[in-house]
């Protein structure tokens, strides 16, 4: 009797497993990922109930448990959890005694990858300051714009970062205190930080100063992603646990720390008792040597990074390493396949997310090309939709009732995320107009509100999500978001430019799109390639500098008087197709030179690298 019962149960289990394999082939992966997310949410809730309301609170707890464990390795130097804690305490003490700042003030940080980036970040956070990470490639007007936008009361400049020296007087006149990571300074009224660190103690600052009161308080400003709350930094510290990371993991961070992937996913992720190997600058040649030297088990990437690694000469030891997890975004399917074939069985966790909204996707099944998956448990995630979008008119397609239409399976749609009390939208700092433009109202029913991500995604019949393209005023190049409106504003300063339209064009074997500017010249003016070259180099970071220029008689616009970008982008930069004058940014000549068929062929073949 008992035997028959057990046989029945066993048979039922077999039937269930077979049925799941046939009808729900990804059930177990979906379940494991769902449980990990649920556990992470419960962990954050528990932290908050125990008074851990910020990333520095969490770090302090880790210091108590593993004070002597290596937290950071930089250029061969090892910094334990306790080392980082004590030096960040000194930074906090310096600003407490000399800073003349109050809790809630914003301090901008312009530093390259180095241990003191983390020391300063944590030290400022311990005083309740909001830290704004600035892109170290920006300068001139763009830098001033960022500082003004986040209402920074102080600016900390890393050693050697004197690109703002011509603006120091302007900043001081606007009551922005300037701190240099140098022991001496040639400018008056500018503070130096390192020489003051040994004058103060490494004791924690008083608890009433450093204690966060609400995990939803703003912790970081990351350009151009808006604000990031303490709750998001806490949640970000758990992302690698979704990928199967353990406390013995060693993470290799080569991305710039001002980038959200390096700071929130990298440094915050390591606070789960892991160790971070920090690199000053990415080096494809040195990458795997470092991984072997430091026994790295996890890496962060952007699509370009993986391609750079694949472009290196093959070596016998390519598969000799301990890397098992790679987390990032932007890797092309072809590079993905080549990367795995060459460097071995590494689990690649491609993700999609933005700090504007509360939604993120993670490809936890290693489906090549996908950025995530809407499995059977996706109803427990913040609500999202893929809406039909007219890429030519750059507008949503609506039905006869004025409601948006959902994109069919297998077709790209605009990703929108529903705004609710549990999934809020904090908006862009100092720009209510831009924040409001991101919101879509009465999308599917009266009264609903969705966040427009500006991204086109496609869902296949198995629920896998694939990134298709960006729409609107932003494209991605060299791992950076390029705002076309900002580039156009800089180019429009030229005396010979009447109208300019900036967009991204695709090039074979390159991730993202590179910049191209369509220009209408002022009457009686001629195009000056040397002048434009000098101008964009002076005012724009390298990734935002348009590589191609197209001279047009009349700018193409939509019925709502918007520049038509998609049509121009699809036409590309082929001089055999486009009859209008084309120019190419040629660094050796320090000028934009005529784009010939020969130059075009060298660019698309890879002989000329961009």
Short description:
The chain crosses the membrane at residues 6-28. With 610 residues, this protein is α/β, with parallel strands linked by helices. The protein has 20 helices and 30 strands.
How would you describe what is shown here?
This protein has 610 residues and is α/β, with parallel strands linked by helices. Among the domains are: 79-228, Rossmann fold; 378-470, Luciferase, Domain 3 (Luciferase, domain 3), CATH 2.30.38; 475-605, GMP Synthetase, Chain A, domain 3 (2-Layer Sandwich), CATH 3.30.300.30. It is built from 20 helices and 30 strands. The chain has an eight-stranded mixed β-sheet. Helix 4 (81-98) packs across helix 5 (115-125) and helix 14 packs across helix 15. The chain is globular. The termini are far apart. 43% of the residues are buried.
